[in-house]
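sry for the spam today, last one i promise. struct tokens for design, 344 residues
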């Protein structure tokens, strides 16, 4: 009897320490056939942020290429964020298990294990991912990828079955929307109309928000705060004002806490934090090719001029109307003043 109890106790202790059992990866996995472009069709996750933003997700892409190293794979991920296509690059580390990859998310100090559990290489791939932060928080995700943006219904059912195997309910599933090809730097979608309507009709400022825990009231000191992703596991693209170079830059926000230097759009960020000092910056179109009609202050002629903005980078000398540029940079609009500027 004592032996039976001892055996049961040892087995029970083993279960307590087992944690996640590794998913079985695709048999005879061929990494070379797995390379190329994939579209993220659907995702299920235990991440609380994803549940709150189920209606916002659009299909993006994941492109895998050889890095020249036998241990690393180059990754480029594109996705729509507030009407603009954004691109993020990184590297996946190969492991001794074919079909298993590892990577580190430095912003959250999190390690991710990714398992390709099923794929036929030319149509679909089912991937299980385990993310763990240094503090101990864990997130499980299941993703369905396709070589095209449309997949047959039976693959959707296979995806749902795998989600259930990972212990997640069907309400954790997000079926992403096909909003067209995502081309970095191009504004190909309008911002969600629901957000605009909410800002227009709600009078009290405390009601305007993005549905997360970002503080809503910002003073001048907020624009000088360092970038802060917060402790959560979301992947929300936001903007912060970099006061040292006087422009707004994109960062990945976890979905909760952080600080007030956190803006939903680049326009909101610039209009909240930009100062007159930006008017002395040179006009910079940036490296992208979106060709957006904006305005900038040309210090050589002392007036605001229109220019083509590429859609990324550049600097803070970038305004969304001539009136806005004139107001920021102190340009007088009367005919008399205009003649004075020309004479000087």
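last one done:
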């Amino acid at each position: 009897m004592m032996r039976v109890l001892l055996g049961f106790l040892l087995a029970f202790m083993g279960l307590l320490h087992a944690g996640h059992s590794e998913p079985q990866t695709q048999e005879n996995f061929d990494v070379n056939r797995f390379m190329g472009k994939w579209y993220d069709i659907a995702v299920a996750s235990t991440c609380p942020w994803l549940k709150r933003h189920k209606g916002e997700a659009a299909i993006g892409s994941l492109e895998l290429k050889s890095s020249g190293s036998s241990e690393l794979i180059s990754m480029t991920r594109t996705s729509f964020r507030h009407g603009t296509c954004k691109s993020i690059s990184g590297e996946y580390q190969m492991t001794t298990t074919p079909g298993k990859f590892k990577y580190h998310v430095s912003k959250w100090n999190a390690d991710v294990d990714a398992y390709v559990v099923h794929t036929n290489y030319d149509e679909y791939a089912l991937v299980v991912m385990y993310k763990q932060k240094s503090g101990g928080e864990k997130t499980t995700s299941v993703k369905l990828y396709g070589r095209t943006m449309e997949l047959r219904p039976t693959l959707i059912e296979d995806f749902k079955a795998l989600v259930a195997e990972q212990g997640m309910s069907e309400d954790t599933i997000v079926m992403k929307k096909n909003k067209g090809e995502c081309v970095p730097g191009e504004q190909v979608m309008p911002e969600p109309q629901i957000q605009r309507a909410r800002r227009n009709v709600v009078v009290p400022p405390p009601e305007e928000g993005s549905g997360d825990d970002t503080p809503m009231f910002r003073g001048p000191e907020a624009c000088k705060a360092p970038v802060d992703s917060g402790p959560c596991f979301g992947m929300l693209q936001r903007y912060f004002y970099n006061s040292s170079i006087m422009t707004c830059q994109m960062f990945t926000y976890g979905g909760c806490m952080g600080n007030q230097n956190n803006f939903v759009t680049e326009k909101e960020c610039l209009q909240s934090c930009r100062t007159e000092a930006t008017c002395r910056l040179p006009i910079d179109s940036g490296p992208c090719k979106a060709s957006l009609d904006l305005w900038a202050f040309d210090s050589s002629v002392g007036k605001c001029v229109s220019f083509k903005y590429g859609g990324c980078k550049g600097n803070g000398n970038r305004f969304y109307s001539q009136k806005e540029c004139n107001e920021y940079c102190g340009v007088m609009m009367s005919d008399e003043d205009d003649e004075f500027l020309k004479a000087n």
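The chain has a mean pLDDT of 78. ok im logging off now
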